[in-house]
Amino acid sequence: MSIAANTSAWLHRHRRSRLAILLSAPMLWLVVAYLGSLAVMFISAFWSIDTFTGSLVRRFTTDNFHTLITESVYRTIAIRSLVVASLVTIVDAILAMPIAFFMAKVLSPRYRRIMVAVVLLPLWASYLVKAYAWRTIFADGGVLAWLAAPFKIHTPGFGLGATTVVLAYLWLPYMILPMFAGLERLPDSLLEASSDLGASAWRTFRSIVLPITYPAFIAGSIFTFSLSMGDYITVKIVGGKTQLFANVVYDNIGIAGNLPFAAAAAMVPIVTILGYLLLVRRSGALNNL
Fold first, then answer.
1. Measured between alpha carbons, how far is 45 from 282 in angstroms, rounded to an integer?
2. Cβ contacts of residue 60 below 8 Å, gap of 6+?
């Protein structure tokens, strides 16, 4: 009996060691390819470009960070990027809550699965196709202007408003799915008890639904906030003359050819997202997912 038990224990340890070896390859890729590239980018942020020859100067300097801090234009763009990412997160949360509640608490399990597929359906389409479709909507003489023409309403056209709307559309599924998962775990008995005790719909939503779905909202906001902070394509398509901080990185890579300054500028959204993750972690919301 002891031999069989020892053999079983050895096989169990052997399987666990093989599983650890299999999982170590993706972890190694994460450390080398992802964290390693971030480390190289951080180091190159302290280099510079020779203004006469355009060649890379691998000499330590903090001029790039000094320019980012002292130039008011970069502070303005940073604040604008933060506001847009926050607005996108708020808009997506407002839109996702009723959709997720309808999916989790109203639909039957059969139609619930269909609705999940419908929510995921826009993610299967090309990012550029969706962005350029919105460009035709916001363009002068486009769909929005055509609908507003009989009422003599001025359409906003390209700019921050169009950028916020398009980003909110693009990232909405990333907010719906976590909130749907959170609401699905909400016991129906709590809603029934609240109704039996005479609570209004708003009181039930505020006292029961919101506290329970708050971790799900935080999970979705991590996606919408970080994706909005790092997006530069949507701004190029529907932003008009507007710039976000990701465009500063892109323009210094493609147009200016100043890779060290682009690396320094890339630290701004990275540090912002890390700061947001730190605040989320300190709030304890991630522990309840």
1. 29
2. 46, 47
Helix/strand/coil percent split, the chain, to 5: 80, 0, 20
Residue-wise pLDDT tens digits, 7-41: 555 445 555 666 556 556 677 777 777 778 888 88
| Cβ pair 120, 248 in contact under 8 A | no
Note whether 214 and 157 are within 8 A (CB): no
Q: Which residues pair with 57 in a beta bridge?
A: 48
Cβ-contact 186, 216 below 8 angstroms? no
Tokens of 206: 């505020």
The CA distances from residue 241 to 142, 166, 229, in Å, are: 19, 16, 18
Backbone angles phi, psi at 153, to 5 degrees: -100, 135
pLDDT for 1 equals 46
Is this structure's pTM higher than 0.90? Answer: no
Of 107, 104, 85, 127, nearest to 177 by C-alpha is 104
Angle (nearest 5°) at CA 248 between 266 and 82 = 70
Residue 268: strand pairing partners: none
Tokens 């053999």 label which residue?
A: 7
Domains of the chain: 70-288 (1.10.3720.10)
Give Cβ neighbours of residue 178 (< 8 Å, ≥ 6 apart). 216, 217, 219, 220, 223
Q: Is the pLDDT of residue 223 over 90?
A: yes
Neighbours of 159 (CB within 10 A): 15
Which of 10, 160, 197, 20 is CA-nearest to residue 83?
A: 160
Contact by Cβ (8 Å): 172, 92: yes
Tokens of 268: 């701004």
Q: Which residues contact 68 (CB under 8 A, 6 or more apart)?
A: 74, 264, 265, 268
Please, what is the end-to-end C-alpha distance for the chain in angstroms? 43
